[in-house]
Amino acid sequence: MTVKQVFLQLGGQQHHEYKKQKHESAVYQEGSISSALLAWGVSGGSLQLLRETLDEVPPSFQVEDDLDLSDLNLRQCRRKICDGHYTAVVRVLTSSGIAPYSVSTLVALQDKHPVASSPSLPSLSVDHHPLVASSAVVLDMIRSFPRGTSCGRDGFRAQHLLDCLGSDVVAISDELIASISRVVNLFLEGRCPPVLGEYIASAPLTPLVKPGGGIRPIAVGTIWRRLVSKVGACLVGPSLSGYFAGLQFGVGVSGGGEVIPHALNRLVEARGGDVGLSMLLADFQNAFNLIRETFDLSLQAWYLDDGTIVGDTLVVGKVLELILEDGPRYGLNLNVDKTGVFWPSEDPRRRHPGVFPPSIARPLRGVTVLGGPVSTCPVFGSELVAKRVTRTIALMDSVARIEDPQCELLLLRACTGISKLYFALRTCSPSVFGSARLSFDAALRSSLEHIVTASGPGFRDWQWRLATFPFHLGGLGVYAVGDVVHYAFLASRLHSADLQARLLRPSGIVVAGPTFDDALRVFNEAIGSDFSRPCPACSRVFADDIFGDHAVSCTRTIGVKHHHNLVRDTLSDICYRSGILVGKEVDIRLIDGHGGPLRLADLLLYSWDRGRDVCVDLTGSSPLTQTGLADFVPGQVVADVAQRKCAKYRDFYTAAGYGFLPFSFSSLGELDSDAIALLKRIQKFSVSQDAGARIYGLDVKFWGVESLKKIFGVVGKFIKSDDATFHKNFLGFSRLLIEVEIG
Fold first, then answer.
1. Which has fewest Cβ within 10 Å: 9, 122, 495, 569?
2. Alpha helices in 454-562 (DSSP H)
């Protein structure tokens, strides 16, 4: 607890100053630290520091009367930019300010957060040990705080901890993190003193004014309480994954906020005409525990306290009835304002008495789930997107008031441009962005023109297109909606495909749906991948090559090194350097079953199989050209290709006295078992080779056996040469067996 008490005192006295007051701030901070350390050395000084901190009243700040709200926001924005808190700049720009200190504000806060008695913990015996966090876990959780994380009532920030653990004080960082870990474990054991626990767990309310009126209370707890919560969640999270799997997508699920709208839209597209279905949108806490395996539902998904349930109308009505009856016993109260029933096809049973409460919302065109539209009505999605684009354009106009081109460009790239629309781009059908896309791109071009030329001449179409390129291509890295609208949607759908399949399994829906197919078609056309057209190089049509692998591997494309030839040349070079007699593109004059000549052997390994020459047939393939990617099995493509090659060619080569070996590889680096066996044998052959003597640059006219006998006779007694050397079939090098006396 000693480290905890010191940090509370230092945090409470530390007042943040900006660049122009850094010197005064440093002097004040050093004095505060020195006074605290002196008090710490006195008997009872640590407790006195704690009492002073608890009794400390936060300073009140007066707002300049001569500045309006927009000017105050602008001033605060510049300060946030100097601190590097770029995401906070957006919140400040759109802030409506803090509600005035008045009786009406206090009443509004009390209405939203009524006074209640302190909770009492049950006196139950715990039959397991408390959580224990290592120093490494505590350090990771400290580093996980976002930059600019606000402080609690003690004024202590996560950045203070990070500064204390920085490289400048590396000598004491290990000892310090060990002390912090002991404090965290003390809290996890439940041994925090009550007088301190009330302070640590409390959070003052800041009444922010909503843009549409009313107040929004913001509670910011202390860093210590948040750190302990982070550590506890990190320790118990892995054990809860199985309990929440397939139901709760709000924590620890990548793309969880996108998978639910995608799955719902696929379900609505496939079964929107089913009159007997209904969708219930509920807002509870942990209500998924009530209906985990009780009802036969088409879909059930929860994102924290927001639930979406789809099933037969009467079954969904029973689900709502269960939550209304049993929910209060678990502290679950229905939020009527956020609860509704929807399905594209109207079911008359929804109007029957007792099925749904009469006051429940019943939208007709569509609903918004986690910020994404779920509807079959294009107008509904277009209106939602238009509202978001309008707000984003207003935000870009506000950024222009900063009057700093570098800061404006930074904010435009990071958090005020297309980044404000990324969620909509990823969850909404590209078809709903029609006019909104044009409006946003026009506003983005105007903002870039203001930054680059101060709205003057010289910013034409060419400059506009160049500005939307990434930095490494000479652009400004500011993307237009028209460039990414289809790509963003497809990326989100494919990224969460497994989670969607899990959600949709009870409904039996496996097809991607027309929205995905249309987006993929437009995207392929935009990048010039129309697979119904023949390849311009070889005139062949590859209808199943939806990922365009053929475009980068066509043997007749000028300037493209064919993957097949690259692997062939590499394998030939490996054999050569290992001392293996090998020929490349060898014509062995074989005739197929129709009387036509077989193509050249990719590689011919001389005397490889007990004196028999073996033809190696190389074949490259891409697993991505399959049509059934849902059943993708790693290594299956290369195995299938090897089997087809053996069935097609092995009998012809065997009848002619040659061996046949398929060497099948994929664009993902997979190898067939025969290819792996060949490489292992080559490696073994290379390691086991005897030491030899070589002469480089010897004219080929001296490659006769008699000449080689005389040349290598100085080394030892000539025994024999191999067939390739005798017949001069391979001109890479000659091989002779020579007996050499040792010693």
1. 122
2. 461-467, 481-495, 497-504, 514-526
CA distances (Å), origin 630, targets 83, 255, 495, 512, 633? 48, 19, 13, 11, 9
User: How remote is the C-alpha of 287 from its chain's centroid?
Assistant: 28
Instruction: List Cβ neighbours of 61 (8 Å cut-off, separation of 6 or more).
Output: none
Tokens of 665: 């590889």
Q: How far apart are the first and last CA of the chain?
A: 80
The confidence score (pLDDT) of residue 286 equals 45
Q: Judging by DSSP bridges, how do beta strands 367-369 and 601-609 pair with one another?
A: unpaired
361 DSSP assignment: B
For residue 292, give every residue at least 6 positions away whose Cβ sits within 8 Å of its Cβ, in sequence order, or none: 247
Contact (CB, 8 A) for 207 and 148: no
In order of their start, the domains of the chain are 245-376 (no CATH), 380-494 (no CATH), 563-688 (3.40.1350), 700-739 (no CATH)
Residue 368 backbone dihedrals phi, psi, to 5 degrees:
-105, 120
Pairwise CA distance, residues 459 & 434, whole Å: 25
- Please report which helix (H) or strand (E) contains residue 94, including its range: none
Helix (H, G, I), strand (E, B) or coil at 156: coil
Measured distance CA(335)–CA(338) in Å, rounded: 6
CA pair distance 233, 355, nearest whole angstrom = 39
- As a whole number of angstroms, the distance between CA 123 and CA 608 comes to 80
Pairwise CA distance, residues 631 & 623, whole Å: 11
Structure token digits, residue 699: 């004219």
CB atoms closer than 10 angstroms to residue 401: 13
CA distances from 685 to 365, 578, 657, 660 (A): 72, 7, 23, 19
pLDDT, one tens digit per residue, over 453-506 is: 887 787 888 888 888 888 777 788 888 998 889 999 999 999 888 889 888 988
* Residue-averaged pLDDT of the chain: 78
Where b means 16+ CB within 10 Å and e means fewer, 341-355 reads bbbbeebeebeeeeb
Q: With the CA atoms of 102, 108, 109 and 115 taken in that order, what torsion angle do they form, in degrees rounded to the nearest 10?
A: 110
Q: Backbone phi, then psi, for 328, in 5-degree steps? A: -55, -30
SS3 content of the chain, % helix, strand, coil (to 5): 50, 10, 35
Cα-to-chain-centroid distance, residue 715: 65
Diameter of the chain measured on Cα atoms? 115
- In sequence order, the 6+-apart residues with CB closer than 8 A to the CB of 313 are 276, 277, 278, 347, 349, 350, 355
Higher pLDDT residue, 54 or 141? 141
Q: Torsions phi, psi of 323, nearest 5?
A: -65, -40
Q: Where are the alpha helices (DSSP H) in 84-157?
A: 86-93, 103-112, 135-143
DSSP, residue by residue, 8-39:
HHHHHH-----GGGHHHHHHHHHHHHHHHHHH
**In contact, 598 and 721? CB cutoff 8 Å:** no
- Please name the amino acid found at residue 681: R
Report the percent of the chain where pLDDT is more than 70: 77
Integer Cα distance of 270 and 503 in angstroms: 14
pLDDT digits (tens, 9 = 90+) for 96-122: 888 888 888 888 888 887 777 766 666
Contact 721, 737 (CB under 8 A): yes
Torsion of CA 133, 134, 135, 136, to 10 degrees: -110
Angle at 317 between CA 312 and CA 321, to 5 degrees: 150
- Rounded Cα distance, 395 and 533, in Å: 44
Supply the pLDDT for residue 411: 84
Q: Residue 508: how many CB atoms within 10 A of its CB?
A: 9
Query: Residue 214: CB partners within 8 Å, gap ≥ 6?
Result: 108
Instruction: Give residue-wise pLDDT tens across range 264-303.
Output: 999 999 998 888 899 988 876 444 455 555 678 889 888 8
Residue 367: name the closest of 266, 445, 279, 449 by CA: 279
